[in-house]
Specification:
Elements: H1 33-43, H2 47-60, H3 65-77, H4 81-94, H5 99-111, H6 115-128, H7 133-145, H8 149-162, H9 168-179, H10 183-196, H11 202-213, H12 217-225, H13 235-247, H14 251-264, H15 269-281, H16 285-298, H17 305-315
Length: about 325
């Protein structure tokens, strides 16, 4: 099931911390008819119903490995990592060849700050299937967390060799090069990422940041503004691009990205806060106040709520 490849699609991107790579689960194996019902619920974003369905399946059939896998998947979506881990482990006890469960168990270990255990699981996946590009990519993330940049680079290069249409390992290599101060190399990796997957908005987003670091301000501006043309650029990506422009004193351009972000997801609170800040700096207090108010409606207890209240008060006559 191809939609299972990106487990952490349910976890927010590392907003304002570019270079954050999302781990990549494997595709799920073919399933039984009753499990297919649950798959359809997941595909339709009905996660509550899917969780209830798979809980019922494992209650009636405790040896159903795929049902345990999917229940673990859903519990991870709802933030219950301990529950997810238990069901991934149960899935593997029922069927130790279910590599998708082992791969996703490794991702939980990464999420829980246990990169060595993640690496052990991923090495087991690769031993069973040396051509699993996603497992190689995830192994690179584990190696990076283990302070093994050479091992991470080798794993990401292997992932690229196995799947040359995926931008993620190129972007991981770019972030690694950026950390070591090799900005020209980081830029080339970003460009390779855009060539690998011209529809992935994370590539121009990361390239824009590298261009700013290289003091290529005009190119960075153009690259980030191009995000509005990416159908896959969600509110978080657009808002992050806008933040980078605002940080470079390009508030008018940033507002273009914030507006697009709000069109794509009006309930994305951070876009309203950053939009209000940019408008305020441009002395458009009336519109800024509207966005501060909307932010407070969406995130009244958020970390930036006090900041938004102060800004709203300052905007009022």
């Amino acid at each position: 099931m191809s939609s299972m490849r990106h487990l952490w699609v349910f976890v927010p991107l590392c907003l304002l911390a570019l270079g954050c790579a999302a781990p990549k689960p494997s595709a799920a194996p073919p399933s039984l008819a009753t499990v297919e019902d649950g798959e359809h619920l997941i595909e339709n974003n009905d996660y509550d119903a899917a969780r209830a369905l798979f809980a019922d399946i494992v209650k009636g059939d405790p040896r159903n490995a795929r049902a345990h896998y999917y229940l673990g998947f859903l519990l991870a979506h709802f933030g219950d990592n301990d529950g997810a881990k238990a069901h991934y482990e149960q899935a593997l006890q029922c069927d130790d060849t279910l590599l998708v469960a082992r791969n996703n168990l490794a991702l939980l270990y990464l999420e829980m700050g246990e990169p060595q255990r993640a690496a052990d699981e991923l090495n087991a996946v690769i031993a069973a299937d040396p051509n699993d590009a996603d497992a190689w990519y995830n192994l690179g993330l584990a190696k990076e967390d283990l302070a093994d940049p050479a091992g991470a680079k080798e794993a990401w290069q292997r992932a690229i060799a196995l799947n040359d249409s995926d931008a993620a390992p190129w972007l991981a290599l770019s972030a690694l090069a950026k950390k070591s101060g090799q900005l020209d190399e980081a830029l080339q990796f970003c460009r390779s990422a855009r060539q690998a997957d011209p529809e992935d908005p994370l590539a121009p987003l990361q390239e824009g940041q590298v261009l700013f670091d290289l003091k290529k301000t005009s190119e960075a501006r153009s690259m980030l503004l191009s995000l509005v043309d990416y159908a896959e650029a969600d509110a978080e990506v657009l808002t992050t691009g806008g933040f980078l422009l605002s940080r470079a004193d390009m508030d008018a351009d940033a507002i273009t990205l914030y507006r697009t972000a709000i069109v794509r997801d009006e309930a994305f609170a951070s876009a309203h806060l950053l939009m209000g800040n940019a408008l305020g700096r441009l002395k458009n207090c009336a519109e800024a106040a509207q966005h501060f108010q909307r932010f407070l409606e969406l995130a009244p207890a958020g970390a930036e709520a006090d900041q938004a209240r102060k800004a709203l008060t300052a905007c009022q006559p």
